[in-house]
Amino acid sequence: MSELKSEVERLRAELWRHNRLYYVEAQPEISDLEYDRLLKRLEQIEREHPELDAPDSPTHKVGGEPIEGFTQVEHRVPMLSIENVYEEEGVRKFDADVRKALGEGVQPAYTIEFKIDGVSLALIYEHGVLTTAVTRGDGRRGDDVTANARTMRGVPLRLSGDDIPPVIEIRGEAYIANSDFAHLRAEQIAAGAEPFANPRNACAGALKLLDPKLSAARKLRFFAHSVGYSEGAAHQTHGEFLQAVRRYGVPTTPRVATLPNMDATLEYAHQLMDDLHALDFEVDGLVIKVDSLEQREQLGRTSKAPKWVIAYKWEKYEATTRLEEIEVQVGKTGALTPVAHLTPVEIAGSTVSRASLHNRDEIERLGLRIGDWVVVEKAGKIIPHVVRVEEHRRDGSEQPFAFPTHCPVCGTEAVQDEGGVRIRCPSPECPAQLREWLRFFASRGAMDIEGLGSKLVEQLTESGLVKSLPDVYRLCDRRDELLALERMGEKSADGLLKGIEDSKSRSLWRLLVGLNIRHVGTRTAQILADRFGTLDEIMKQSEEQLATVDEVGDVIAKSIHDELASESGRQLIEELRGFGLNFGEPIPERPADAEARKLEGLTIVVTGTLTTFSRDQIKELIHQHGGKPSDSVSKKTSFVVAGENAGSKLAKAQQLGVPVLTESEFEERLACRAPIDGGVEVPQIQ
User: Fold this and answer.
1) Which residues contact 418 (CB under 8 A, 6 or more apart)?
2) Per-residue pLDDT tens over the stretch 54-69
3) pTM value?
4) Which distant-in-sequence residues (6+ apart) come within 8 Å of 110 by Cβ?
5) Over the stretch 554-609, which tens digit does the pLDDT of each residue have?
6) Where are the alpha helices (DSSP H) in 418-486?
């Protein structure tokens, strides 16, 4: 026990020191992951040995101490910390815990946003006027930095609009843009001063300056991400709050989205991770929040953190190295992607020698030249990317890079996306596009063809056995030619042919993913398959009709329609049809006449356990009759269908005066027509 007591004392002392380094001095010595490991070890000991717990333990503390020299302000609502996870499994567990706490059958919607690597700040507006700006401090009390906040970009001195609450506390992150930080470092170096290590340190230091003019020179900015204390605010979801804040004239964290479940949220998370290179600010993770404020109240919090939010983080590591050359590669959609070849450098235990530069605009934004010294960042499982150029180290030998005007593989003149930044090879005959498409088509996320890996794709295309996507299925009649390939034995050939044959029965959504339609990922493909049933039905839809589908929108609809309506697209589909691929199953015909579509324009929430329908079936029924199924109750809800054990949604409907129907009452208004999946009949509204 004495050894455990000594370990507890050591852990507490170490955690307090790191708390001060991070929150007070803005000079952290360890990563967030290492800090979390120390804290979790202390939590484990205190949990297993309650007699060693103490009220002043860091496990009961939210943050660091306020900085001396500023007036202290008490937070009306504590600024709590957020629990961190570093793997997708942790996010899944968070989702499972939330759904369990909310009750059976309740599916919360989530908002997801970038976790800005800046300094937490609360802006308090009274009758629309900025009165106070407070740092997080220890979570209970912070420093009054109003004078400095008034100089910050994105912080209006007065809110705009006519629906502003009497009092609202807008919380967010103060930060310095990467482009501004690069200029700041260059100025420091030119003046012979020690440059800041990273934007967060520079931002934290700026907020501690007593002279607002000096703080303003660092060009601090602000993104809003949450609400603290408020009086008279009418929003019921986080999404509604963010919309209101933008109306008031306060910038919010960009690319925030509200998704219906965790599967969709994680898919969008991967998109955000892929686009990190385009950001002009530092992030160290993503924040996932339950969207409904009512559900947040139900979930509550621990002494340290709310139970309705999680930070999905990654460790970030940087190194400086030399840019030796830039190679332009051709992807599966013809996109020309520049790749930086770097002098090998060790980052987080691995050697990095390449980094994606994503597109021509990224090279121009960074101002890259061949021979430049560059800062390269590696964040968790995300591929390394170039953060900035160390311009002060240039010696005049660096050379500008000219982006190619023609495809580097087939020589076709490249074209730029209309209204976009991507430059592409437009030739459908380009061998590089075919190789990358085949690899993608055979991958686990698409058609999952066992045995068709990258090396075999190279052999098949170089030998001429596969000159187009449908040629993959023609291999079933060319076994002898397969066996003639180098290192292709009978067992490997038969395994490949079985994998190809098995792929013909894959779900429609997998085929949609494999068709390589721009902007169509797993989530969109599943939505289309569920909504229309067959590929032929999808092809019948106009661009305008596709755009009305939930989570599709104008850009994706145009991409789908253009591809499926093109001559090459139709030819490809007809060839695949001839090989017997699964094009889906028809869904019951939707009533077209106005008399049948009596749910037209109505928003309907289903809650509780149903006896006649599954949740998916009743939602499809609502769709069929022109209605819109929703997962949350608001004043805009037309009515609620409540099954057994209905919980918070039923209570919310009763509170708002929204009509409530039992399942049998709903069915009484319907007359049966054709059967749907599972033998349940789809009623016809009378």
Assistant:
1) none
2) 766 777 545 445 545 6
3) 0.56
4) 95, 258, 259, 261, 262, 265, 288, 289, 290, 291
5) 888 888 999 999 998 999 999 999 999 999 988 765 555 555 566 777 888 888 87
6) 431-442, 454-463, 471-474, 479-483
Query: 663 with 641: CB under 8 angstroms?
Result: yes
Tokens of 193: 């001063």
Give the start-end residues of each E strand in 88-161: 110-116, 119-126, 129-135, 141-143
* Rg of the chain (C-alpha set): 29
**How many C-beta atoms lie closer than 10 Å to residue 423's C-beta?**
22
638-678 pLDDT, tens digit per residue, is 889 888 877 767 877 888 889 998 888 887 765 533 333 33
Structure tokens at 54: 């103490």
State the SS3 of 342-367.
EEEEEECCEEEEEEECCCHHHHHHHC
The phi and psi torsions of 301 (rounded to 5 degrees) equal -155, 165
pLDDT reported for residue 606: 85
pLDDT band at 371 (very low <50, low <70, confident <90, very high): very high
Which domains are present in the chain?
Answer: 2-61 (1.10.287.610), 84-313 (3.30.470.30), 317-416 (2.40.50.140), 431-503 (1.10.150.20), 508-578 (1.10.150.20), 603-685 (3.40.50.10190)
DSSP state of 608: S
Asked whether the beta carbons of 412 and 427 are under 8 A apart, the reply is yes
Burial of 251 (0-12, 13-18, 19+ CB in 10 A): middle
Q: What pLDDT is stored for residue 22 in this prediction?
A: 64
Distances in whole angstroms, Cα of residue 643 to Cα of each of 617, 625, 666, 682, 686? 14, 20, 11, 18, 22
Residue 113, both tokens: 């946003």
Q: Alpha carbon of 354 to those of 321, 339, 371, 421, 467: distances in Å?
A: 11, 7, 14, 22, 30
Mean pLDDT in residue range 127-132: 90
SS3 94: helix
Which helix (DSSP H) or strand (DSSP E) does residue 400 occupy?
strand 399-400
Tokens of 315: 């460790």
- 66, 142 Cβ separation under 8 angstroms: yes
Phi/psi for 652 (5° steps) reads -65, -40
For the chain, helix, strand, coil in percent to 5 are: 40, 25, 35
Active site residues: 115
Tokens of 78: 């504590």
Q: Which residues contact 168 (CB under 8 A, 6 or more apart)?
A: 124, 125, 227, 229, 230, 231, 233
Q: What per-residue string of b and e applies to 575-608 under the rule 16 or more CB within 10 Å gives b?
A: bbeeeebbbbeebbeebeeeebbbbeeebbbbbb
Confidence bin at 535 (pLDDT 50/70/90): very high
pLDDT at position 681 is 37
Phi (first) and psi of residue 335, to 5 degrees: -65, 130
